[in-house]
């Protein structure tokens, strides 16, 4: 019997069973073997090609699993219809070329922190302690998040932010976006969400993914316009009370009270994104709206990326009693997205008091950093730039008075070893979380040199 469709190279590094499998697969895809064509038995093909029965069986088994042939008991193996349009060909993976970026000497990016001011030694010790709990690590863990962490967060969030939450109301997740995704699944009848201009792209993407339209509303001196909110018809509002993106200021208590009245009157829900709310250092942190509302009408979101390490992706959400009733019957269907080991380590970090001590150190550090950076920028650029401090995001927003656009300014800075970022409205963002305090003046001088031809 001839087997023109089978090509074997015994000197090749490819195993014989793999060569046999590929030959038969190609014959089926090209139509050389048609549907219901019978293949030789394992023993027959083994004898004819001088292969072991194990080699032939391995090839046939893989072809059966992938649906190219099927086995009929007491009858043998038969080809299935798996023809492709056009000639069958092997797919060659594309060659990956790594992009080489210019070296960064001074990093003003928002996605990292200064390693010199992290509690990494203590964090490493807590992670090791969690890893030693072998009986705990042998399970997936709780869908809602580890009870140890939820208990610790219940006390911590009340003490630092005034959030009213029992452990049962708290849901853990790997950052704000996964938690927002879960929340959107509970919002069956709410098809639009209001937020103050210019918006928040990461949150907007999640809402868009769930078919919830984003209504960007104008703001006034106190925050999102209440008239615009009322007229929008939205029953869901995304608010960051600790830091308004457009002004860097917090929302005053009068406007927060108006927003809470709107939620109570309209049956609306406020999503309070308290990103870095406890890191305010020029004054005491703004009390959480969730606590002012007594835990009703407000979903609270908190995270730890700048308090701990950006790579530790743990956030938490406090649901309203009404949303909790919707969530609990579904909880077992949601897989936990945050590492169980990191959850247990964070629980111990909070319980031991290390979190509060670290928070006090960071408030002092970031206050000093912001002052030194603002002073260095004013000395270097004078009236060529306007500076806006966004306190809790730990950033400065620069309006650079030049004809060069933000992309061009970022490229020039990077060529000089300084990494900066642009904002959505074409300004320059400098984060002082990542740059060592001793490097601030030198970094600003490099930035001045990079932009010297722009003015």
Features:
455 residues, alpha/beta, Arc Repressor Mutant, subunit A, Aspartate Aminotransferase, domain 1, Aspartate Aminotransferase, domain 2, 3 domains, seven-stranded mixed β-sheet, four-stranded antiparallel β-sheet, 16 helices
Could you describe the 3D structure shown?
- The chain has a seven-stranded mixed beta sheet. It has a four-stranded antiparallel beta sheet with strand order 14-15-18-17, with helices on one face. The chain has a three-stranded antiparallel beta sheet with strand order 1-3-2.
- The model has no long low-confidence stretch (mean pLDDT 91).
- Helix 4 packs across helix 13.
- The protein has 16 helices and 18 strands.
- With 455 residues, it is of the alpha/beta class.
- Strand 17 and strand 18 (428-431) form a beta hairpin.
- The termini are far apart.
- The protein is 40% helix and 15% strand.
- It folds into three domains: 1-92, Winged helix-like DNA-binding domain superfamily/Winged helix DNA-binding domain (Arc Repressor Mutant, subunit A, Orthogonal Bundle); 106-112 and 358-450, Aspartate Aminotransferase, domain 1 (Alpha-Beta Complex), CATH 3.90.1150; 140-352, Type I PLP-dependent aspartate aminotransferase-like (Major domain) (Aspartate Aminotransferase, domain 2, 3-Layer(aba) Sandwich), CATH 3.40.640.10.
- The chain has helices at residues 16-30, 42-49, 53-66, 120-131, 134-137, 147-161, 176-185, 201-209, 226-232, 253-266, 289-292, 321-327, 340-351, 354-381, 406-415, 440-450, and strands spanning 38-39, 69-72, 76-79, 106-107, 170-173, 192-196, 213-217, 219-220, 223-224, 236-239, 269-273, 298-303, 315-318, 385-390, 395-400, 418-419, 421-422, 428-431.
């Amino acid at each position: 019997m001839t087997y023109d469709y089978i090509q074997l190279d015994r000197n090749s590094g490819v195993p014989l069973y793999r060569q046999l499998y590929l030959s038969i697969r190609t014959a089926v895809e090209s139509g050389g073997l048609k549907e219901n064509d019978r293949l030789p038995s394992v023993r027959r093909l083994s004898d004819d090609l001088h292969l072991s029965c194990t080699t032939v069986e391995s090839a046939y088994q893989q072809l059966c699993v992938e649906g190219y042939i099927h086995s009929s008991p007491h009858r043998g193996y038969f080809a299935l219809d798996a023809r492709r349009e056009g000639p069958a060909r092997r797919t060659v993976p594309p060659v990956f070329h790594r992009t080489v970026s210019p070296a960064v000497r001074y990093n003003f990016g928002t996605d990292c922190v200064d390693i010199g001011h992290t509690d990494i030694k203590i964090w490493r010790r807590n992670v090791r302690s969690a890893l030693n709990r072998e009986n705990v690590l042998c399970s997936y863990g709780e869908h809602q998040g580890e009870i140890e962490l939820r208990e610790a967060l219940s006390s911590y969030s009340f003490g630092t932010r005034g959030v009213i939450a029992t452990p049962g109301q708290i849901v853990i997740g790997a950052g704000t976006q996964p938690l927002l995704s879960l929340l959107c699944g509970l919002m069956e009848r709410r098809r639009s969400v209001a937020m103050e201009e210019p918006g928040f792209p990461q949150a907007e993407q999640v809402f868009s993914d769930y078919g919830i339209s984003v209504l960007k509303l104008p703001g006034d001196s106190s925050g999102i316009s209440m008239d615009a909110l009322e007229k929008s018809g939205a029953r869901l509002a995304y608010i960051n009370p600790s830091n308004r993106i457009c002004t860097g200021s917090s929302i005053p208590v009068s406007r927060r009270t108006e927003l809470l009245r709107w939620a109570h009157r309209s049956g609306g829900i406020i999503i309070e994104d308290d990103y870095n709310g406890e890191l305010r250092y020029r004054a005491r942190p703004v009390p959480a709206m969730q606590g002012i509302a007594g835990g009703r009408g407000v979903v609270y979101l908190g995270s730890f990326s700048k308090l701990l390490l950006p790579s530790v992706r743990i956030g938490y959400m406090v649901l309203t009693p009404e949303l909790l009733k919707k969530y609990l019957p579904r909880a077992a269907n949601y897989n936990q997205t945050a590492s169980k080991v990191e959850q247990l380590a964070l629980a111990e970090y909070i319980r031991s008091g290390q979190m509060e001590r670290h928070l006090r150190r960071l408030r002092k550090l970031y206050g000093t950093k912001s002052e030194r950076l603002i002073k260095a920028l004013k000395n270097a650029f004078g009236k060529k730039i306007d500076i806006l401090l966004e306190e809790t995001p730990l950033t400065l927003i620069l309006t650079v008075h030049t004809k060069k656009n933000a992309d061009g300014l970022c490229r020039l800075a990077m060529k000089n070893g300084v990494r900066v970022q642009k904002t959505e409205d074409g300004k320059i963002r400098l984060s002082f979380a990542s740059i060592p305090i001793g490097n601030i003046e030198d970094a600003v001088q490099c930035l001045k040199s990079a932009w010297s031809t722009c003015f």
